[in-house]
Specification:
The chain is of the alpha/beta class. The protein has a single domain (2-197), classed as Endonuclease, Chain A (2-Layer Sandwich), CATH 3.30.870. The protein contains 8 helices and 6 strands; from the N terminus they run H-E-H-H-E-H-H-E-E-E-E-H-H-H. It has a 6-stranded mixed sheet with strand order 3-2-1-4-5-6, with helices on both faces. Strand 5 (127-130) and strand 6 (137-139) form a beta hairpin. Helix 2 (24-33) packs antiparallel against helix 3 and helix 5 packs antiparallel against helix 7 (162-184). It is globular. This is DUF5753 domain-containing protein. InterPro entries: DUF5753.
Length: 198
Amino acid sequence: MQESLATVITEYESNVVPGLLQTENYAETLMRWGGLLTPDNVELRVRARMARQGLFQRSTPPRCLFFLREHALRTVVGDSRLMHEQMLYLLLTGAHPRCAVRVVLDSTGPNTWNSFRVMEYDKYPSIVYAEGICGGTFLEVPSDVITHRTILGKLENAALDEEESRAWLTDLAAAYDHEEAAHSSPPRPDQAQQLLQQ
């Protein structure tokens, strides 16, 4: 509900691809990984997550800016094929005129901030949604919002710009594609001989 009312959403994610940018396969694999949800709960949550992405299909979607830590993009969820698909989806979504994806390289320094998003509204004060293990927390105190906006300002300076981020994601997608091709290709004759001898 908060997302649907927002006019601007700015999100920082340090560990995984944000829900609004996940493919269905990525979301399902991620939810199954923890082993804490029943299959029915996984299915229900995946459908809800995909429905949230309808936000981008509205006639006037919110302006969205996502800062994604390199670690979140290199952490393999599922396999290389799934990650290749996810990187392509990030490139596709980031090409939307009201959505920007920017990469924060690990070389910029240690990650000391948890994932969060700041949501702004036309008629209401801005709020922060901070992620937690057992659920999220909404922060409405103005000083909390200011603190998180300060962090976003630092991320703005540290992250690759949109064009650099697209190039970086394109390279990473190609690397995942290469890795998948290497796993799926049959071994060369000399490799096959070596495997038989082992």
